[in-house]
Amino acid sequence: MKGTLQQFVQRTLLKIYEVNRTNRLSFVTAHNLDKQSKNRKTGSRETNDQEKVERDRKPLHPYKKIHPWKSIENFSQDLIDNVIYNKDGVVVLNKPYGISNFSREITSERTKWKPMAGISNSVNYTLLDVLPKISQDLGYPSLSIVKSPERYISGISILASDEKKAYAIKKALSRAQCAKTFARSYWVVTTKLPRSNSGELNLAIRKKESPCKTYKQPIIVTKWGENEVKRREVKTFDVCYRTISTSDGNLSALMEIQCFTTKWHAIRVFASTVLVSPILGDNIHGSRVKKLMGSYMHISPFVDASRQIPILQPELLKKLNLQQSQAVIIPAHIHLREITLMSFPSRGQDLKLVAPLPHSFQWTCDQLQFKIPTGNEEVHNEMSVAVAQ
């Protein structure tokens, strides 16, 4: 009996000892794991802090510096510093990308559209906002906008000091159109090589209603009726285009497009559907062309895929230092490069205006290694104005 009791006590003590030993080991193990976890967290925070410092040290991507102004005064002064022409009541500015001519309240509802544009630190300044400041600094009682590209096209904006000058400018532009002479030249960068390098076409653009009859999309047509033109259901236009340079690796092209109209995004739609080569940064009509089974094909402008951010070639994205997820910040590469005012300011003399490329546009050209000719910037006569890049 005594032996049995001693055995029971021994077993009980051993059991308690093992449990305590296990608890001690578990506590030590848990303590060590917790300590390691804290070290990892501390190291992770230190790593994150280091990565943040490194990111801050990295130069900001050029596409994130499109709107660098800190105030409307700074914006106004920047425009004044970049005046292309100022003589006899005519002032020509190089309008930045993403700047409207008028406020949204004044802009017609029919012409409003909301592209998926990711302008970093975008400002809501308009040309109208700074006209008083520009007028005062340039010594004019007032200035009005005569001709200027829409918000998401950079380039030449023409201002006039009075109605007489404004009328003369409009007359010079209409004179060129009547003479079938292209007065405006746009430079664009495409996402691939165009179907043809050059050509001149007579086309028309119209709005086509969606199958659900809830909205319309612009399309290019090659046949139309005179009654459609009279009813303003279609807009006819001539277009002339040429490839200025191709990129390193033939990934894209720098092109000049001369066109009589930009109505209904005519240049964007023309590039996507006729050239089968969308404009870089065009998030409105750039996805009308998709690569299927190794070939580029048109898709309906009414399917969801046509309204997505365009999927760019990996090689092209690499040259632009971007990932596909960052494609939304790419500005639409459309620049109103040149305007010629026929028989202005007097008969027999043409005034040629050339606008330098925006910094982001020029950076893209450098990254893609385009060869930009200098012949377009030569002064052909004493009334021509050329601004060096």
From TrEMBL:
<comment type="similarity">
    <text>Belongs to the pseudouridine synthase RluA family.</text>
</comment>
<dbReference type="InterPro" id="IPR020103">
    <property type="entry name" value="PsdUridine_synth_cat_dom_sf"/>
</dbReference>
<dbReference type="InterPro" id="IPR050188">
    <property type="entry name" value="RluA_PseudoU_synthase"/>
</dbReference>
<feature type="region of interest" description="Disordered">
    <location>
        <begin position="30"/>
        <end position="60"/>
    </location>
</feature>
<feature type="compositionally biased region" description="Basic and acidic residues">
    <location>
        <begin position="32"/>
        <end position="59"/>
    </location>
</feature>
<keyword id="KW-0413">Isomerase</keyword>
<dbReference type="GO" id="GO:0003723">
    <property type="term" value="F:RNA binding"/>
</dbReference>
<dbReference type="GO" id="GO:0009982">
    <property type="term" value="F:pseudouridine synthase activity"/>
</dbReference>
<dbReference type="GO" id="GO:0001522">
    <property type="term" value="P:pseudouridine synthesis"/>
</dbReference>
<protein>
    <submittedName>
        <fullName>Mitochondrial mRNA pseudouridine synthase RPUSD3</fullName>
    </submittedName>
</protein>
